[in-house]
Design goal:
The complex is a heterodimer of chains A (384) and B (120).
Chain A lengths: L16 H6 L3 E5 L2 E6 L4 H10 L1 E5 L4 E7 L4 H8 L15 E7 L5 E10 L2 E6 L4 H12 L3 E5 L3 E7 L3 H8 L11 E6 L2 E6 L8 E7 H12 L4 E3 L2 H10 L41 H10 L3 E8 L10 E3 L9 E9 L4 E9 L8 E6 L2 E8 L12
Parallel strand pairs in A: 3-13
Antiparallel strand pairs in A: 1-2, 3-9, 4-7, 4-8, 5-6, 6-7, 9-12, 10-11, 11-12, 14-17, 14-19, 15-16, 15-18, 16-17, 18-19
Helix pairs in contact in A: 2-7
Chain B lengths: L1 E3 L4 E6 L2 E6 L1 H7 L2 E5 L6 E2 L4 E7 L3 E5 L4 E6 L1 H5 L2 H5 L8 E5 L2 H5 L4 H8 L1
Antiparallel strand pairs in B: 1-2, 2-3, 3-9, 4-6, 5-8, 6-7, 8-9
Classes of the chains: A alpha+beta (384), B alpha+beta (120).
Chain lengths: 384, 120
């Protein structure tokens, strides 16, 4: 046996799989799912369409987990979840959502997630590739207080872009009064949906959790609006990179802390030293120390001066001839809306100030890149 | 005479100079190009060596020298406007011209019928 049989395993399908094929999607495996990377227009046009009108993304591969407090009091679930995240969950108002990270004992990031406060439960959205790890982590830590319900029977659609509010308002008028990070149950095209005004593109828009059986009908209803086009994971990646948002597994992982990842904004005062509920999450000693004194390295935006895209894995040098790299690019693409290459990566904190000049080694050439504040394309969230 | 490679390049020969580009199929697979890097005139390549780079939003791909030779000219128009490769891959979107090292390498490439059969 010199040639082992190729590994075969069944890719999972989202409830919109048949629609993707019908729409001419180019499919590829992603986190165990057969997912649409792009449709007929291609990544560049899909990206620009999202920023100009509205993009509809199937993100049903992501994990949806409900934490239901055994006591019936959602505050008990919030208090319990604070054991795992350096985030103010107890202070999360009803019908509001907040970004968080699960930390490990070293302060590394097990996953990043959204936490929504929904009357009787907390609604979590986690990354597809970390679903199983997160579920185990939650069961180990919170089963005394919460029932942990992984919702396999729901799809997740994201409607993103400047036309998204008008599109959704035609189907669910009360969505118009939602602000960024509000989360509500709405009836859309006859389906009972959990809708948050949030997303992963930097644009205004919504993420819509819908029962799997209603997902295709909802997607087709949204697509009837001329402003709406299906957008694949390729454009999702270039959109989030321009928006300076982290991709788990690329920009953050178990070896990066939330301070190194420049996610201090996600850690509210009440969980920091001197706060009423300081610490008491995994790796708190490391993270709280870094919050006060800074970390040795930091995630920054990187803007190449030339046209050459600088992609993940490219090494960064302090000058054009240095032999030892000082950092690594973790995400990089051509940004269609930035009209040039954009990247993110880790550099020593001493080299993390905006406008610091570094050199990226691309195919043996040292190309100048500048540290830049994120995002590359301004966020357009509905904050007021 | 026009020939093709299994790597989806086309090669048109005039005298001992070959013009090289990528095929319609290749540009469709790559998607909208946003960056092209071409070799400098005078540089020589063995058959199969990476000679140019094309990048879409998503990824970088190499374009190989379909035959060995010395670069005599690269097409600055596609560096200035990579979308030319998408809109006119067999014409204005050509990549580079090289002086043949060995005519037999050209003769061994696929003719149009063989290339079309490869796509089916």
């Amino acid at each position: 046996m010199t040639h082992p049989a190729p590994a075969t395993f069944a890719l999972k399908h989202t409830p919109l799989h048949a629609l993707h094929l019908e729409m001419g999607a180019r499919m590829a495996p992603f986190a165990g799912y057969d997912m649409p990377i792009q449709y007929v227009p291609g990544v560049l046009k899909e990206h620009l369409h999202t920023r100009a009108a509205a993009g509809l993304f199937d993100v049903s591969h992501m994990g949806q987990i409900a934490l239901r407090p055994r006591s019936g009091r959602v505050a008990d679930a919030a208090q319990a979840l604070e054991r795992l995240v350096p985030v103010d969950v107890m202070g999360l108002a009803p019908a509001r959502q907040r970004y968080a990270v699960f930390t490990n004992g070293n302060g590394g990031i097990i996953d990043d997630l959204m936490i929504g406060q929904c009357e009787d439960r907390l609604a979590l959205i986690v990354n597809a590739g970390r679903k199983d790890v997160d579920e185990r982590h939650l069961r180990d830590a919170l089963s005394d207080i919460c029932a942990i319900d992984v919702l396999e029977d729901r799809a997740l659609l994201a409607l993103q872009g400047p036309a998204a509010p008008a599109v959704l308002a035609r189907l669910a008028p009360s969505s118009a009064s939602m602000r960024f990070m509000d989360i509500r149950t709405l009836s859309i095209a006859g389906a009972s949906c959990l809708v948050s005004r949030s997303g992963y593109t930097g644009e205004d828009g919504f993420e819509i959790s819908v029962p799997a059986r209603d997902a295709e009908k909802l997607a087709r209803t949204l697509l009837q609006d001329a402003a709406v086009a299906l957008i694949g994971l390729g454009a999702r990646d270039s959109l989030r990179t321009e928006a300076g948002l982290c991709l788990y597994g690329s920009d953050i992982d178990e070896r990066t802390t939330p301070v190194e990842a420049a996610l201090e904004w996600a850690m509210q005062k009440v969980r920091r030293r001197g706060g009423a509920r300081a610490g008491n999450f995994p790796g708190a000693d490391v993270v709280l120390e870094q919050l006060e004194r800074g970390a040795l390295r930091r995630r920054v935006g990187l803007k190449p001066r030339e046209r050459t895209p600088v992609r993940a894995g490219v090494l960064l040098y302090a000058d054009a001839s240095a032999s030892q790299p000082v950092g690594t690019v973790t995400s990089g693409t051509f940004g269609p809306s930035a009209a040039g290459p954009v990247a993110m990566g880790y550099v020593p904190t001493a080299l993390s100030a905006p406008n610091t000049l570094l050199f990226a080694d691309v195919r043996g050439n040292r190309l100048p890149v500048e540290v830049k504040e994120l995002p590359f394309v301004p966020h357009r969230y509905k904050r007021t | 005479m026009l020939k093709f490679t299994q790597e989806h390049e086309w090669v048109r020969i005039e005298g001992d100079v070959a013009t090289v580009g990528i095929t319609q199929h290749a540009q469709e697979r790559l998607g909208d190009l946003v960056f092209v890097e071409l070799p400098e005139a005078g540089k020589s390549f063995e058959k199969g060596a990476a000679a140019a780079v094309v990048e879409s939003v998503k990824a970088a791909s190499e374009v190989y020298a379909p035959i060995g030779g010395v670069i005599v000219e690269a097409n600055p128009a596609i560096v200035a406007d990579p979308s030319l490769v998408n809109s006119d891959p067999m014409g204005a979107g050509w990549f580079f011209k090289l002086k043949l090292a060995n005519r037999a390498e050209f003769d061994a490439l696929l003719d149009e019928a063989a290339y079309k059969a490869l796509l089916d």
